[in-house]
Amino acid sequence: MKAFARHRRLRQNEAIRRMTRENHLSPADFIYPLFVVEGSGIKKEIPSMPGVFHYSLDRLGEELDEVAELGIPSVILFGVPEHKDACGSEAQAENGIVQQAIRRVKERQPHLYVMADTCLCQYTDHGHCGVVEEGKVQNDESLDLLVKTAVSQARAGADMIAPSNMMDGFVAAIRRGLDEAGFKEIPILSYAVKYASAFYGPFRDAAHSSPQFGDRRTYQMDPANSREALREAATDVEEGADMLMVKPGLAYMDIIRQLRDRFHLPVTVYNVSGEYSMVKAAAEKGWINERDVVLELLLGMKRAGAELILTYHAKEAARWLQEMT
């Protein structure tokens, strides 16, 4: 009888399992999202995202200290302004909420790497990611506003610009605008593959950015498509992106892998609000072990090919990983 393979030999105890483990999670893999609001004395939990809060600038420091202490190297900032208008003018304001938050992070925790989300949806009164004329989002007219926003964020001290608007040509326009403004060293993390997903609901609650009419399917991608994702990513690489993002993560592991195999730029995945909130809801019911499920999901994203994970689980995951070492 021919001997059969004994794969279990390498699973016999924790020591050999650790030695042969192919992928590893670390707090250094995480980017932590922060929602900053105007006002003072505000730390208010977002109802649809347990454990995630709106912070006013004067309360932001306590969160930054905790993030740094946990060994998470980077934050990405989302601003929620009081004033909104048709062109999202607060997005590019010198003292806009994100610009102020960038400066506050750099003062409090100068070693944290600060990414700035570059989009208009939370700044416009219509909730779309660009200029709207006659009920349609105008691509080229929106680019100028996005460039001004990116430059203002760089002037405030952002280490990386992360445009999430999905307008055609946005990477080329922002790269050119940053270069002309003297920010040639500022990299771009492109939301290269951003799907028109049902997983964004809690984020829109957090950012007050739900569209007031229609939807975003004319600029965000159809969840049915994968070849289109490669075209989008290839364009952003050609236009000067330094890193690529896939958003969401859980339902798009195949897309992460395809980008990882096709391109030589670092790949980031956004573990989005709906994915986070589903886990939280199931854990609250006692249906799952939250720690084990979260770490398994994040590890799956690493295995699929993501070098970095933008996740609301970052602080808890970092604590759990520290406890396990």
UniProtKB/TrEMBL annotation:
Q: Matching NCBIfam families, A to Z?
A: PRK09283.1 (NF006762)
Name listed for the protein in its UniProt record? Delta-aminolevulinic acid dehydratase
Which molecular function terms from Gene Ontology are attached? porphobilinogen synthase activity
Q: What does it catalyze?
A: 2 5-aminolevulinate = porphobilinogen + 2 H2O + H(+)
- The protein's annotated pathway: Porphyrin-containing compound metabolism; protoporphyrin-IX biosynthesis; coproporphyrinogen-III from 5-aminolevulinate: step 1/4
Name the InterPro entries on file: ALAD, ALAD_AS, Aldolase_TIM
Where exactly are the transmembrane stretches of this chain? none
Q: Is Lyase there in the keyword field?
A: yes
| Family membership noted in the UniProt record | Belongs to the ALAD family.
